[in-house]
Automatic annotation (TrEMBL):
GO-annotated molecular function: ATP binding
Keyword presence, Membrane: yes
Domain ABC transporter per the UniProt entry, residue ranges: 3-205
Organism placement in taxonomy: Bacteria, Pseudomonadati, Pseudomonadota, Alphaproteobacteria, Rhodobacterales
Name recorded for this polypeptide: Heme ABC exporter ATP-binding protein CcmA
InterPro entries, A to Z: AAA+_ATPase, ABC_transporter-like_ATP-bd, ABC_transporter-like_CS, ABC_transptr_haem_export_CcmA
Species assigned in the record: Maritimibacter dapengensis
Keyword annotations of the record: ATP-binding, Membrane, Nucleotide-binding, Translocase, Transport
Length: 207
């Protein structure tokens, strides 16, 4: 199982942000996505997850192989922690939510409505969702926002276990997660502003 990306050009609002980008993410590997604010990391992850079409290029795996953890946690506030996980387990066709509850330290919170969780607890629940997807490729956008040091360590352990079991992860993060990871810096792939000159909409990070 391998995610191979070749000649990929991604855009926001119709404006190319990154172009002719490529990388390989193999089973057992963690790749950390780097680049300044506004450089296109979220846009790249959304494109790989199938949430928006690329302008060009090839992505070797379908969105069904991918679990995307976005900025927004996507919780259902009226449902309890366990009910949220059970909902996602049914969506993804998996069963076991208990391991996810344990791994993200949510057992004591299992019956609490998601709306009543703290920001960091919500984040832990959002990450627990990844564990019930059963999908091999995790794409994560700033997964540790709002997490305390202990929760960052829990998250890093979950990623280690995922890749040890043959999964892989592409993680946009500005912090050191203490993982054995390669770095993929998107900066060299910034789109050519001249190609879109005249509309004044090009990414501020590259002006
Ligand atoms: N909905 C949108 N419509 C148009 N342009 C957008 C939209 N969202 C983001 N952009 C622009 O697209 C460019 C890439 O943004 P993106 O969020 O992919 O960057 P990023 O590398 O993830 O940034 P950060 O590190 O700040 O999270 C930026 O110039 C941003 O202003």
């Amino acid at each position: 199982m391998e995610l191979l990306v070749e000649g990929l050009t991604v855009a926001r609002g119709g404006v190319p942000v990154l172009e002719n980008l490529g990388f390989r993410l193999s089973s057992g590997q963690v790749l950390v996505l780097r680049g300044p604010n506004g450089s296109g990391k979220t846009t790249l992850l959304r494109t790989l997850a199938g949430l928006q079409p690329p302008l060009a290029g090839e992505i070797s795996l379908p969105p069904e192989a991918i679990a995307y953890g976005a900025h927004a946690d996507g919780l259902k506030g009226q449902l309890s922690v366990a009910e949220n996980l059970a909902f996602w387990a049914s969506v993804y066709g998996t069963r076991d939510i208990e391991r996810a509850l344990v791994d993200m330290n949510l057992v004591a919170l299992r019956d609490r409505p998601a709306a009543n969780l703290s920001a960091g607890q919500k984040r832990r629940l959002g990450l627990a969702r990844l564990l019930v997807t059963g999908r091999p490729i995790w794409l994560l956008d700033e997964p540790t926002v709002s997490l305390d040091a202990a929760s960052v360590a829990l998250f890093a352990d979950a990623v280690r276990a995922h890749v040890a079991a043959g999964g892989a992860a592409l993680i946009a993060t500005h912090i050191d997660l203490g993982l054995d990871a390669a770095i993929f810096d998107v900066t060299p792939f910034k789109a050519d502003p001249d190609a879109t000159a005249g509309d004044g909409a090009f990414d501020e990070a590259f002006l």
